[in-house]
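Contributing new records

If you add data, match the layout below exactly. Sequence lines come first and carry their own label; structure lines follow with theirs. Keep one chain per record. Anything else will be rejected by the validation script.
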Amino acid sequence: MRPRLILGIESSCDDTAAAVLEDGRLKSNVVAGQSVHRAWGGVVPELASRAHQENIVPVVHAALEQAGIRPRDLSAIAFTQGPGLIGALLVGGSFARSMAQALGIPLLAVHHMEAHVLAHFIRDEIDRPAPSFPFLNLTVSGGHTLLVLVHGPLDMEVIGTTLDDAAGEAFDKGAKVMGLPYPGGPEVDRLARTGDAAKYPLPFPEVQGLNMSFSGIKVAFQRVVRNVSTDQLPTELPHLCASLQEGILRVLLTRVRQAMRQHDLREVGCSGGVSANSALRARLLALGEREGWVVHIPPPAYCTDNAAMIAMAGHFLLEAGRLATPADLPRARL
C-alpha cells in the first residue's frame, strides 16, 4: 500500500516552516526564523511577509530532501489558514495551493491553534504517549491563551480564554520594559532561575469563570520596573524576571486546576510557544503529580510555531475527508 505522505507548511507569524509526515510519523521538520525583527523589539508584519517569500522555497525543498522524497510522492499538502499575520499567511497559503494544484493532490486548511493542540500526537524517533480523549489543553502563546476541552482530534471546545493580553505577550512586553532583547520570553525564563519570585509580588487578576487576564499584571510590572533605578537594574533583573514569571504562571495554573476539577478530567496537555518555558513545564508536572493527573507536554521543538503540527493536523483532516475548498483562503482572524 502506498504510504500517505503529507507536506505541512506554516507561515502564520515570523517562522517559515515545512515538515513531512509519513503515515502519521514525522520524516522531516525544517524551520527558518527571522532575525530581522530583533532590531525592532517585535514582529514587523511587512518584514515578516518579505522574509517568508525568501524562505518558503528553500525551506520546502529542505523538508522534502531530508524526508528523502520527491514532490510527486506527496499525498496532500496542509497549510496554516489562520489565525496570524495576513501577509505571512498569504505567502504560505498561496505556495501550498499552487503546489497542490500543480501536483493534482488534496489541499488541507489547518487552524493554527488546533494544530498546537495536535502537537501532542506527533510521532518521531522517540515514542511518547499521546493523550486520551477527553483531555484539557492549555494552549498558550504570544498571541493566544486558551483552555481547550479536547473531545477528539477535530472536536475541540474553548472553555476559557484571556480577556485582553495573551500570556506570551505579557512575557515579551515585560522583557521589553526591562531592556531585554526580543524575543523576551526565553530571556525571562533564563534569568528567573536565579531570582526571588517573592521580591516584587504582582496582583492576581480576578475575572469570572475560567477566563484569564494579563493586562493588569503587565501594567503593574511596568510600574515596578520604573521604580528600580538604572544602577540597580542589572542586579535586580533575575528577581524582576522571577516575579513576572510567577505572576503569569499563577494565573495559568490556577485556571488549569479549576478547569480540571470542574470537568472531572484526568489528563491535561500544554502546548504553544510559552509551553517551552521551563518553569511552566516543571510547575505543571508537579501540579499533576499532586492532583493525580497525566500531564502531556511536547518537546520544545513542537511547542513553538512549526510545520510538524500543521502536517499532523492535516493527517487528521485527510483521514476525515475534510479537504480545503476554494473558499478556504488565509484569514488573519479565524
